């Protein structure tokens, strides 16, 4: 990674490339490492205003950041709400970019990234935040300090809190056939046996490398973007950050989980897929399409078919186990039938 470290090493005597855990804590007064924040909004105007307010508080603590809000053709008055708040609060460091179409989360991020790179900005990274997030005190400084000290880190994700403040200390492994089986089984003995293949990883109190991190709060170093890496707009929603982190790794960049930076995330406010009432709603088609695209694109059709079979078998076992226990339904309606209909077993889509 020496070719990428040169510019950072001139400013940081602690250039630490490498790939192990990190024990040093980064001070709240981080070195100058400006961030451009990109928020993609779809019908969550008041939540975006709350997110911007939390960023304004970070600026008040000395963080060097600006914000770009992309409105993905909400058509519900969200853009007007956000624009009015920016003018009312005097947030001259924030701007609203309207998108003429809703091309999905990745497309919205790409639009925001394009504006971030085109602006006369000295930002060293673009911080992608969901509209339903609130930045906790000091998170911007911790994230900037980590990226400044670790030039091999192309992507850095933060720790998350759930809406009620409960910690959600997780990052991820790339999805695999065995990972799909473990996820679908939801059976403790199998989870222990397949723990090394589980997609979800519980992280510790120190920064550590991961395969991918949640796109709800994910910073991407400017050099990664200047190399031309963008989100695959073939994903409408979900799996786009997984694919992005995988593409970054192929280019030699590392992805890190940074627990010292904390962001509150009220999940599922735009989609309902991961919200508190997710079990009452059918999973939308775009989730199945995104999952299928990820496996086919990165592993091929045969592997994607094996991943489908693993999930179907695991979920069927789970349903049988639940029936024997007479446990109440906890899954979205018609999950198995919808999965089958969108799988390669039935649809045969290329």
Automatic annotation (TrEMBL):
- Gene3D superfamilies given for it? Spore Coat Polysaccharide Biosynthesis Protein SpsA, Chain A (3.90.550.10)
InterPro entries reported for this sequence? Nucleotide-diphossugar_trans
Gene Ontology MF terms in the entry: transferase activity
Keyword terms of this UniProt record: Transferase
Look up the domain of life of the source: Bacteria
For this protein, the record's PANTHER family field holds: RHAMNOSYLTRANSFERASE WBBL
Q: What is this protein called?
A: Glycosyltransferase
**Lineage, highest ranks first:** Bacteria, Pseudomonadati, Pseudomonadota, Alphaproteobacteria, Sphingomonadales
């Amino acid at each position: 990674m020496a070719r990428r470290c040169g510019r950072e090493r001139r400013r940081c005597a602690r250039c630490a490339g490498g790939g192990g855990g990190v024990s040093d804590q980064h001070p709240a007064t981080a070195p100058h490492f400006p961030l451009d924040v990109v928020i993609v909004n779809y019908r969550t105007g008041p939540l975006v205003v709350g997110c911007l307010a939390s960023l304004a508080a970070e600026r008040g603590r000395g963080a060097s950041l600006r914000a770009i809000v992309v409105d993905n053709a909400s058509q519900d008055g969200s853009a007007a709400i956000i624009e009015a708040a920016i003018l009312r609060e005097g947030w001259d460091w924030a701007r609203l970019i309207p998108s003429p179409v809703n091309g999905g989360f990745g497309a919205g991020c790409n639009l925001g990234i394009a504006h971030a790179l085109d602006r006369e900005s000295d930002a060293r990274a673009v911080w992608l935040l969901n509209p339903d997030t609130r930045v906790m005190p000091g998170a911007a400084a911790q994230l900037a300090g980590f990226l400044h000290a670790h030039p091999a880190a192309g992507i850095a994700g933060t720790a998350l809190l759930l809406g009620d403040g409960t910690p959600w200390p997780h990052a991820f492994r790339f999805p695999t056939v065995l990972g799909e089986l473990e996820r679908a089984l939801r059976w403790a003995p199998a989870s222990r046996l397949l723990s090394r293949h589980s997609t979800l990883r519980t992280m510790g109190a120190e920064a550590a490398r991961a395969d991918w991190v949640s796109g709800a709060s994910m910073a991407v170093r400017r050099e990664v973007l200047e190399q031309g890496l963008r989100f695959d707009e073939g994903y409408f929603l979900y799996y786009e950050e997984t694919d992005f982190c995988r593409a970054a790794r192929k280019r030699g960049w590392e992805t890190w989980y940074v627990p010292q930076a904390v962001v509150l995330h009220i999940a599922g406010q735009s989609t309902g897929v991961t919200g508190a009432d997710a079990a009452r709603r059918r999973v939308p088609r775009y989730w199945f399409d995104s999952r299928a695209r990820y496996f086919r694109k990165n592993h091929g059709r045969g592997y994607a078919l094996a991943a489908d079979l693993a999930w179907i078998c695991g979920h069927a076992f789970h349903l049988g186990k639940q029936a024997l226990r007479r446990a109440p339904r906890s899954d979205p309606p018609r999950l198995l039938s919808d999965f089958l209909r969108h799988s390669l077993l039935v649809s045969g889509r290329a």
